[in-house]
Amino acid sequence: MVEKEDEMASILQKIADHELSVDMAMNQLKDPGFVELNYAKVDTDRPHRTGYPEVIYGEGKTASQILGIIQTMVSAEMNVLVTRVSPEKAAAVLAVYPKMIYHDTAQILTWQSIDVPPLPSAIAIVTAGTSDLRVAEEAALTAEAFGNSVSRVYDVGVAGIHRLFARLDVIRQSQVVIVIAGMEGALASVVGGLVDKPVIAVPTSVGYGANFGGMSALLTMLNSCASGITVVNIDNGFGAGYSASQINHLTENTK
Amino acid sequence: MVEKEDEMASILQKIADHELSVDMAMNQLKDPGFVELNYAKVDTDRPHRTGYPEVIYGEGKTASQILGIIQTMVSAEMNVLVTRVSPEKAAAVLAVYPKMIYHDTAQILTWQSIDVPPLPSAIAIVTAGTSDLRVAEEAALTAEAFGNSVSRVYDVGVAGIHRLFARLDVIRQSQVVIVIAGMEGALASVVGGLVDKPVIAVPTSVGYGANFGGMSALLTMLNSCASGITVVNIDNGFGAGYSASQINHLTENTK
Amino acid sequence: MVEKEDEMASILQKIADHELSVDMAMNQLKDPGFVELNYAKVDTDRPHRTGYPEVIYGEGKTASQILGIIQTMVSAEMNVLVTRVSPEKAAAVLAVYPKMIYHDTAQILTWQSIDVPPLPSAIAIVTAGTSDLRVAEEAALTAEAFGNSVSRVYDVGVAGIHRLFARLDVIRQSQVVIVIAGMEGALASVVGGLVDKPVIAVPTSVGYGANFGGMSALLTMLNSCASGITVVNIDNGFGAGYSASQINHLTENTK
Amino acid sequence: MVEKEDEMASILQKIADHELSVDMAMNQLKDPGFVELNYAKVDTDRPHRTGYPEVIYGEGKTASQILGIIQTMVSAEMNVLVTRVSPEKAAAVLAVYPKMIYHDTAQILTWQSIDVPPLPSAIAIVTAGTSDLRVAEEAALTAEAFGNSVSRVYDVGVAGIHRLFARLDVIRQSQVVIVIAGMEGALASVVGGLVDKPVIAVPTSVGYGANFGGMSALLTMLNSCASGITVVNIDNGFGAGYSASQINHLTENTK
Amino acid sequence: MVEKEDEMASILQKIADHELSVDMAMNQLKDPGFVELNYAKVDTDRPHRTGYPEVIYGEGKTASQILGIIQTMVSAEMNVLVTRVSPEKAAAVLAVYPKMIYHDTAQILTWQSIDVPPLPSAIAIVTAGTSDLRVAEEAALTAEAFGNSVSRVYDVGVAGIHRLFARLDVIRQSQVVIVIAGMEGALASVVGGLVDKPVIAVPTSVGYGANFGGMSALLTMLNSCASGITVVNIDNGFGAGYSASQINHLTENTK
Amino acid sequence: MVEKEDEMASILQKIADHELSVDMAMNQLKDPGFVELNYAKVDTDRPHRTGYPEVIYGEGKTASQILGIIQTMVSAEMNVLVTRVSPEKAAAVLAVYPKMIYHDTAQILTWQSIDVPPLPSAIAIVTAGTSDLRVAEEAALTAEAFGNSVSRVYDVGVAGIHRLFARLDVIRQSQVVIVIAGMEGALASVVGGLVDKPVIAVPTSVGYGANFGGMSALLTMLNSCASGITVVNIDNGFGAGYSASQINHLTENTK
Amino acid sequence: MVEKEDEMASILQKIADHELSVDMAMNQLKDPGFVELNYAKVDTDRPHRTGYPEVIYGEGKTASQILGIIQTMVSAEMNVLVTRVSPEKAAAVLAVYPKMIYHDTAQILTWQSIDVPPLPSAIAIVTAGTSDLRVAEEAALTAEAFGNSVSRVYDVGVAGIHRLFARLDVIRQSQVVIVIAGMEGALASVVGGLVDKPVIAVPTSVGYGANFGGMSALLTMLNSCASGITVVNIDNGFGAGYSASQINHLTENTK
Amino acid sequence: MVEKEDEMASILQKIADHELSVDMAMNQLKDPGFVELNYAKVDTDRPHRTGYPEVIYGEGKTASQILGIIQTMVSAEMNVLVTRVSPEKAAAVLAVYPKMIYHDTAQILTWQSIDVPPLPSAIAIVTAGTSDLRVAEEAALTAEAFGNSVSRVYDVGVAGIHRLFARLDVIRQSQVVIVIAGMEGALASVVGGLVDKPVIAVPTSVGYGANFGGMSALLTMLNSCASGITVVNIDNGFGAGYSASQINHLTENTK
């Protein structure tokens, strides 16, 4: 990968200095930054660009495709995180890599070959109801895999808003807040109006009828009258956990 | 109108008793219960069926059509309420009926020829923001026209939820609560979780982008996780005021 | 829970009077009003706020989560109502609580530990067709659980409108009317034009093609040309029964 | 136009009989059945195929384009019907063809050069409200232009259903019924359940909020629980009048 | 049922003439026109109002509910038609009524206790593809059950439009044309431009992706540039067959 | 089939020359261009009109219907391509035609009885992810069946855009580019901005939540800010392969 | 721009050969390929990448922004094409560049400083109606600006399909066909079934009611049962003209 | 406002210590945290809760309502930011507060009475096109008002992706990235795949046809295949600027 000018100038300088032949430079410049697997091109350059290794999206991939990608990442000594893995596919993977851990509520497979020490500053994960657990745990495990502490505040939806007030201190002590809610998703606005930290809202498909598969909560969160709320896709616990981790790590970088 | 069996039996008995000729009975049975105006059939039977006179929906009617219907109702000694009247149409009506009152925030025309004494028990009208005023006043004036006291609690949206708590006593002292909100409409759920009275939620078209003309608040309110909330059409302040009045009058009937 | 000012003033006075230590007052103020269950926070304060105990929404919860919540409520001597319980989950619950009753048409579990004497004034539940039965029974059982009499008027859709007229007296004698209809949902408007009581309309997902999962009936009911109609979510029999009960109890409170 | 086999066989026979040269036959077969106007190809073959001359859809055409098409039809001695003509365009056309008649409620221009005697059997046009008049008159004038008698039954929506019953005889005496309604469009189902004649339903865009420009009434009519109802596009009075005329003329053809 | 004035006047006259007691008249007037089945009110008055007996919509009804309704209709000596019956429900019904016929392509059950002689004039049923067969046969069997001849013209979609032209004579010889198409549904417009008879278009859910369950074909048909096309719900073969039958019978009545 | 004037003139001339009787000519003109199969009309004229034989769309057809159509095409010595064939139906077909090949990733059946030599110029098929493979192979096999070379460039989505740049040469050397992507489908715009060849974009249903079954990628591709992109239906690999083949063959025709 | 490896290798070789300093090479590699205008970055590298200069999309840009971009392109000796220019903006531009030509039907501004000789092979542009002219001319002028001959075949919609057959020869003699239609857009499928060349379909927003701003025609074209059709955005005449030109030029390149 | 326990405990302790009377404590607890303006309740407690003063949303408020709220905030010595102010309303405000500044591209009014020194770490604002300027400036001015440095990178959409690569260094040096794009919105995914900082995506309503008022770009951004992207409402530049500022300030707090 060659977008960074410094790298490019350094290569050019080496050619001028005869430290590098044109052929060798071309090879170096042509280093693809990925491993070709026929059905996939595993992105080995990603930590360099975005700070984190590639995360495998398990849905729509066969167990053997997932295994192939894991093998490539393990060879490259990367930590592995696979989301949306059904129990059947998980079993097939665990048969080959028995050291991997399958988190069944979150439907996530993880393997931490390299230790990631958690940041002291926490991410709060707040849910409206019990049915939002799968998405909440997907967010929590993602955040933990990338070295964050997580405060879980579950089932504090606005039908009984005193439950939220009772946990407000925990929420306010974190650096970033993830709010997860289905049905009408009003919790995001209420939290947004009470905290001074960035809020990432995750609509879930929990509900029926006019929730239209999560559309209802999604629109609620996009139209929030409270400021400081950004939104990810319906049921996208992973995305919320990932973004929250990026934000939380900013505090580390600048210390 | 002849659906009520008692009325029918009474007519039949009178025929049997020769107190009524067949022709006269037919006329009585055929009393249409409306006045034919060519472009409209004014429903003069409505108070008998539903307890209230017809309300004129002003949109899509010309000023002269509105005038014709008003004239019919005035002749029948009914109170007149016209909703969604533009200032232009209102001016045309007031030129003919200078005693009518035009409420410009609510875009409503009223004429109370018969006095309607207000019930002691109140209807609370709660709005999320300042931009919801037109709809709120449409609801308030409708409720007042039908003999209800109204408590106005405006601009208490969830972005600053303490404003709502500061007015919770007023809300809890009313018999019915109307909650009016645009954008994400979360206020309805929050109020629903805090009171023990029926809540009627009115989504408004206030907002932009993914509010899709009020769809966002509508879906929020339909999917509310709080119980005891029913919903009317987007911007339908009149409908909420009408239903709240019906409910409030139940308490009177049963005393 | 501390929103009510009287309660707060009374606590403060007791501190001033040295009848209460600051610590004890803090505990009392900090009484959360819920029981923490890890996956749920059961709202034990709800009867105080909204007049009714929490109702358990069974969908998306595991049988063991439902059992845990039931146990908490039973310990708190609350009546239990669980909606949207599949026969499989119901069987698991009944194995532990054999005294609970499973209503299979409505897919509802109930346990009335405290007797709720029914009000004399009734709620009419009117359906358009036979396929609306599940939703209708969910509404009926909810209303009955909260102490209301219910008049069932089923299968009187507008394709044969004389069936409705034949039952109009029963409908008119009730205090609140619930109208349940799928397909085009026209029944709500027709009933709304014939009665002087509040009408709660429930669209159902019955139908196919352009009914789009109940959207068709929902839009019909929201746009009704008849006044006095409010709407709940598609298939939300519970919500209609709950709101109707709230309205019906108003008549009691004011006597 | 050559699809009809008889015509084709007759031409071939004439060639075989040397009554027609190959060139002449090719010309005859190649008779395009339309007049080329650069911006339009006026379909002069339509009466032959569908029984009626082309009707000009005025929207999206300039006044001069409309004039050009009228001129072509007038030259071909066809009756002219132009729908959706704004007053401005109508004035431009009338300046050239002062004998044409502009119906301003319906926004239609007509010119009957050939007399079309009306059928004795009538088409009933039933509307829910006063605001549906433009669409109703578009349907009525179309039907009358094609030789049908029309019975107008306006403003009989289900909010006051007795108005409909009062006019049921007129409706039942017609051969075809057109029902026109906006908002929730329930009238179509009610009429469909009461008559034994084909019902054509026209949803209108009358309403606001969740009527979504007529979508609400459209879905209602498509999902009707009553049998015997077919539907045309939102506000398509012309289409309903045209189809009703086709149906009404069937009775004539078969006598 | 009492809407018809003649009937009413006759009853009143009889009372005046002492040929009928008030009680007897009330009974006669109160004849409900339906049979109460607890879960259904079978509409026995329908032939009187709409010319055809009630048709049972099988979806969403249990086999035992269907059986109960059939029994009521058989007792009343009505012909029976049940649509959308799964093979499982059909087997349960046939076990009780072995003389009924189950048409498995159309998923329809029929029993003709009274002979309905077919009209000489035919209904053409035209489909775009092979996958539209279920809907086409639902339409065809409905039309035949109500005494119509049917011309089946299947698989003539516009991808090979010459197949349509080859069958145009058959189509043109019928009194009414039903066009059934999924995917983009263009066939309806093409047929509409070629015939002078009313066309009823049935969109089907055949297709994938952006057909959105038949929405694509539905919109096509509603927006047709050809005149004389009316539309029924997606996959509603029954509705099309029913309406076509009504239209076809008009020709009979007027002869 | 008779649309081509030359053919028609030649027939007419033969009649004039008494080389052909009128009856024979009528038969020739009436040659339907299809084989009637009761449930299908196999279009044998298609190669003549569109350059390719009919392709069988397997979904919604029974195995025996598919077999019947194959038999007809085999008899007419056409190459056979069946798309969207489930493994079960494929097995039933292979039992009768064991020489056919079933491609299980693409769910396609093929039989090349006539050899189609591939063009030297290639079609590039570019996918965003591994989950797009089924659609990609449907496109690839279609293109190969019609005599095109295919360059497969899989899993180069914009999350790791360097993978695309690494394969840009292969893409730029082809005559037409097919871009296949689900989720947000951004890859099409990026490729469109980098190549000077026509790009056909295929949205896939890969994704969840607010992808609404592929709608998300579809809208992305239709609204592309890059020029030179046209779009086919969601998951329509066949359509893309077919259109690409048509375009690629243009280069051959003009050499 | 540096993606092409040859260019890169040549630069590296020159450095190795001391023909180029590292600084100079860096400048050359860093040549941005665009001109910075503060509010815009004019893409001067586009002809190199995609074969055509940038086309200016006029909507949402001020007249002075358009003028600035034109000036940049004129300086770079590029031909200029601006689409969607209102008459007001056009006047402002013409005041500065009086040699530019404004095509008012198409709302396009052009300036051909470099002569583009037209290809002999033509693009056919086929429209369903007169109201599609603006879009058709946008496509036609785009194609002509890029050196293509255009055959205009206007107003041949399926309501009078013989008009299409009369022009089929012109259509079949072209290399690419653009089909433009609003309302139900059926014309695309019909043309697709009759020609052996690639068809680009353009849905237009012509129509009303359930056409939903062109959605109806868009869905029709995406779901076409005919093969060989690809689709562009609603009203996107430019995009169709551009893609057709790319395809048409393929034939040239390969000669 | 009393949610914070420390504050509460401190008040209670003072009462116990007789430093505070019960009445005074009640007043203090009852301090509403807002100023009542009849049509608005200005939230003066917000800086305390969320770190920033209330921002006035100008749309749907009259100039005099805006003035009233400004006056309240000025009295409370808060900085003032009003978004979505039309030039007309701005003029009315400036007539009263001539020191306020109106930014006409962004349609924002600002008044910084208290100096907010900018953070050294920057927010990058990246747009796809020139037409996205209004939204971009709304984001930029919001961020600057809250003490952030802003790097503007405009018009780098994927149709000419080299423009983005040319500015990648500027983007990578910022702490947070806002990506603003209309049409298909692909830029967000491309940027997301290239940086290791949180990306906030803003869909704009720029485009036409199937962009459905910004829905297209919104769905693109929600479904992004790149990780680390969160989304705000269509055209919500303010919201993006606000959230980015919150994130950027985290880095400050933790130093």
What does this structure look like?
The structure is a homooctamer of 255-residue chains. Chain A is 40% helix and 17% strand. By secondary structure, chain A is of the alpha/beta class. Chain A folds into 2 domains: 32-111, no CATH class; 122-253, Rossmann fold (3-Layer(aba) Sandwich). The first copy, chain A, has a 5-stranded parallel sheet. In chain A, helix 10 (215-222) links the parallel strand 10 (199-203) and strand 11 (229-231). In chain A, helix 6 packs parallel to helix 11. At the A-H interface, strand 11 and helix 11 of A face strand 11 and helix 11 of H.
Key structural traits:
homooctamer, 255 residues, alpha/beta, Rossmann fold, 2 domains, five-stranded parallel sheet, four-stranded mixed sheet, 11 helices
